[in-house]
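User: I'm preparing a small set of examples for a lab meeting where we compare how different chains pack in three dimensions. I only have the primary sequence for this one, and I'd like the structure in token form so I can line it up with the others. Please keep the answer compact; I'll paste it straight into my notes.
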Amino acid sequence: MIKLIRFHEYGPLVIITCLTTALLATKELDIKLVKLLVYATSGSISTFILNDIVDVDEDRMLSRFRNPLVNSELSVNTALILYLLTATASITALVGLNIYVITLALTTLTLSYLYSVGIRFKDLVPTDLLIHGLVPTLLTITTYITYRPLSLDLLILALIVFTSSITSELLQEIRDLSINSRSTVKYLGIKVSKDLILTLVMIASVLYILLTLSRYDLNYLVIYSPLTYFIIEPVIKFRSNYLSVEEVISKLRFRTTLLVTLALTTYVVLNTSQYTIR
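Assistant: Understood. Below is the structure token output for the 278-residue chain.
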């Protein structure tokens, strides 16, 4: 069922973002991390279900078969029930957290819904990019401040998430350019959009180095900075038309997940003795 609502495309990134932020913010793991993971995953699922419900007629007309409601893999009534269940689970998971975290978390969830309904940020330039980048960034901040106050390393991490999320949205808009009537990519054009993607990826790579140098317990992770080449390389090929948009999306998704997992695993292994579970 989860596959039908396309969470398989973005779910791992949501989980990794939340988990990475929590592990960097604290060495004392408790029920709050479980609550945040349930909030983030359920909220992401409900967001995609809502998007598919709202866009079903348009997607059917344009033959967008990624929407499971278009190819009858899922009925609208079933989708509505799933939306209510996942949205409720996401909000309920926040119970017991402090008021600042709850307020920020609900703001994040509201913005993710307004991306598809009401204001429909997805149809406004350039808020289609900004909101797509802001929602996971706010998730990062929400997770971090659950455990500790705002700091320089949070700012850098949030900027990495923001630039990476905008990059992802630009690539998806290029992929769907022929069927999207309104998007920032349509306004900027393919060439400028590709230049912007390369710039954002390079900024994210530099930010990774700054993040590893911002805290003494992250310094050794700078050894992985040369691996950012494998993130930049497919973008350069895409910009030069040696890779299709589907190919670059696939490569970036896999390589980014692998690099983050490698760095996070190294960090956790070297700090295992300091972690406590309560």
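A couple of notes for your slides: The radius of gyration is 19 Å. The longest helix spans residues 245-270.

User: Perfect, thanks.
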